[in-house]
Amino acid sequence: MITWRDEFALGVPEIDAQxxxxxxxxxxxxxxxxxxxxxxxxxxIVDIFNELKDYTxxxxxxxxxxxxxxxYRKFLSHKVxxxxxxxxxxxxxxxxxxxxxxxxxxxxxxxxxxxxENHILGVDKKIVEx
Length: 130
Ligand SMILES: [Fe+2]
Prior knowledge:
By secondary structure, the chain is mainly α. It has a single domain (6-129), classed as Four Helix Bundle (Hemerythrin (Met), subunit A), CATH 1.20.120.50. It contains five helices and no strands. It is elongated and about 50 Å long. The two termini are 31 Å apart. Bound molecules: fe (ii) ion. Residues 63, 78, 82, 119, 123-124 line the site of fe (ii) ion. Residues 63, 78, 82, 119, 123-124 line the site of fe (ii) ion (FE2).
């Protein structure tokens, strides 16, 4: 699980809401992982990954537009981080999921959750700190 803490808040309501939504998508993936009643999790995992990809692209675009709107000086280096993350997510090979669903989901989730936490705390917060 990834739990929202006050320190994640930027104080920009729409961006904070979008970050919470990313947490919620990640937590749904954890729920699928924990559900021992599901024998074949493939379809649900693919659905969640696709939703995560789509929502991340939407969120990054919003955040980048916000940075431009306030004339944020570190916009380009911030966008590079977004683009790298999207590239990594796009490289996720869904065919691997059939081989070892649990392990693949765990590793992908650990990467995604760690990235989101570090990015919000280390990079996004700088937007509002100036
Ligand atoms: Fe960001």
